[in-house]
Design a protein that fits this description.
Chain lengths: ~425, ~475
Amino acid sequence: MKKLYLSLLAFLGAILLALGVWSLAALDWASLPPLTAQSVFDHSAESSFESRLGDRFPMRNLLLKGNQTMNLFYYFSVGEENLLAIDYKGGAEAGGERLADLPEPVPAVELPEIDLPEETDVMAVGTVIVNGNRAMDIPTAEDEIITEFGNAVNRIAAAMPEQTRTFLLVTPNGGQFYSPPSYHTGIHDQSAMIRRCYDALSDRVTAVDAYSPIARHCDEYLFFRTDHHWTQKGAYYAYSAFCDAAGFTARELAEYESGSYEGFVGSMYNYLSSYPQSKVLEDNPDTLTYYLAPVATNARYYADASLKNGAHVPLIDVALRDTITNKYLCYLGGDTPICVIETEAEGGTCIVVKESFGNAFIPFLAEHYSKIIAIDPREFNDPDEPQLNLASFAAEQNADDLLIIDYPFMINSKAYVRILNDLIPE
Amino acid sequence: MVFSSLLFLYVFFPLCLLAYFLVPSIKGKNAVLIAASLVFYAWGEPLYVFLLVAVAAVNYGFGRWMEYNREAKKTLLIVAVSLNIACLAVFKYAGLFVQTVSDLFSLGWSAPAIALPIGISFYIFQSISYLADVYRDDVPAQKSFWRFLLYISLFPQLIAGPIVRYREIESQLEKRELQPRRIFYGALRFCIGLGKKVLIANYAGKVVAMLLTPNATVTGAWFGMVMFAFEIYFDFSGYSDMAIGMGHIFGFQYAENFDLPYTAGSITEFWRRWHISLGSFFRDYVYIPMGGNRRHQILNLLVVWSLTGIWHGASWNFLLWGLYFFVLLVAEKKLQKMLARIPKWLCHIGTLFLLLIGWTVFYYTDFPQMLSAFKTMFGGAAAYTQETGAVMLNSLPLLLVCILGSTRLPRMAGLLLNGVAAAEGASNVRWREVVYAVSVTVFDLAILALSTVSLVGSTYNPFLYFRF
């Protein structure tokens, strides 16, 4: 029997060792940050080595599939309700996604390379739920942060040139309309979050009530089921509210030339792909309908606010390759640091400070402004990012209007409030 | 480095095993284990590994000195134990002390930023047990510094226990038998522990994080606390299983640290089954020397339970947690006759309820949060929301595994399999043992595979003992 035990033990040991050697061989050693005394003592060397070992572990894709199957047990649900609730770690404030094949514009100033510590202590900022064939991210109100957000917008408005009008548009997301009641009432009530935010605004900021028209039309296809964004139709109702606030006349939606992409499976599916409840999202993809701007446009995006060496990007890409599963990237190519859209319309200049919700909205502005400058504030002012002083930039551009567009996760994000505050240096 | 990581499972541990079994002599094997233990500790604590070695050196020196100068051994013991406690006080409790004094007298001091060395409570307590045993002449002082360093730093029990008494493994430091069946059993125990940690505790922890929020409902708070009770049990006993298993693999015999604590019918019984090595440490080195149940029993219990509480972390809620159990244990002693008349099942339910209250005190290091949690649990919030319902529904199979896994059932299944294999007088004993060995190997491989799937697929793998 001794031999049997020894053989079985040797077999177990050999498996461990073989997988260990395999994982070390598969490790991309060159991508590891250099080993320094600081990285050893602050544990960043240790954590980056361990996380890369996991990322390159042998048969990783197979193991991830196995994990999805295992989650059938850990995240049990029955019947057609297909119910799942998990913590949402947020991260939208960290920056968005853009088309991989966009040409890279050259930054005007070369930035120093900085190794930022990995965020390991990200707290949950909300919940993601799957109910039937729809997934939704449910924000949780952080009243203090919402007020701070309002104050940050006030600070921006106060620093704008005299002639620049400032608008704030906070849109609800689909969770407000399609989730079970307890997910959109009380601390999850997005209308209350938006109200609190607007109550904190000064006289220099015009609040755009996008909530009301969206709520009135919520039985239409205004939010994707597999993605956290609104459809462009949802953005249209917000745009109509903006027109009311800014003194424009909104064109009827039917007057726009439109097209569509079928088979869109978006961010919520990606976030949930390791959970069994996501299967129904994959089986029931969304349709993305786009509405083209009624005037000719020319859009270029830039790496920084110098607006030099830009690269062309379509306002709406009507010929996305089939391999691009994230169809929402058809708007402005996704999130780029700064994108300037020149139009043939007669009008002034509008700066739009936005996260990705703004991308589907911006094409509607094309007929009201001759120049629209879309800025993603998440791409600026960190130590490894280009600098942007929004006040002096708006003055340089003779901006007539400044529009800030955000969805509820942003107004509840301390990190995003800091990002907004950084736009106006002390 | 933690046991439940890919780095440990597939790089560190197999390399360590390879070196250990390739080296023929016991001296060589000890050298491999010392080197591995220091690398293991330095991976997470590159600076404090020097503290670990220094603690070992000082205690080794005092042990030798006590034996050399027997007249002064009491003084030496007092000095050495004081030094150990001072080390613990500086690295673990200085921040709490300064902050508390500052808060009490509004001095505006900021707590010193001293990071807590992982495992310090374990290796300091092991050192104290060694000194006490040498003082009592229960064991001779260790002559070899390297063997003593091995005792203090041995990685299986270094960061999460159990607290191994020197006298338990004194002889094994010099001579160990490496029997294949024992190593085989060690591998099984390790895999059981790994499964408890990665496949149960980590997932229970996720449920806890979802439910124990400031916006918890009554149902959610209770369910969350039940899952926390399971998380800490499966996590802690899982670590102990892994330590005991690795001990067997390397030829060491560690005492058991958990014995199905949630089957206890009283708080007294629970503490005989929970973190046994800590309880027996306080019993043998604090409670009995102070007089035990012969004199000042209540005072002795008060001291022991205050120390037990604060041992778990430098935060006053842990002291409160210890005092809570002091009150319960004294009450059980006083009400012994009355409690004996209550049906066993009712005692069991009552014990579990009291434990949940205890875990609530343990969970919240922040007093206002703790009070708010109690308020929620006893009706100060909405009873139930769909959110709570969804999380509870999603976690039902896990809850079932937790309940069954903390009963005698898994142990009975193991014993049954082992018993079938070793049945005396059976004609086909050899085949039975083959079936046993193959089944256990398949079980080991399944746990390893599932744990690897989980570790690759999820980033949630907390280490709960950073406060100890």
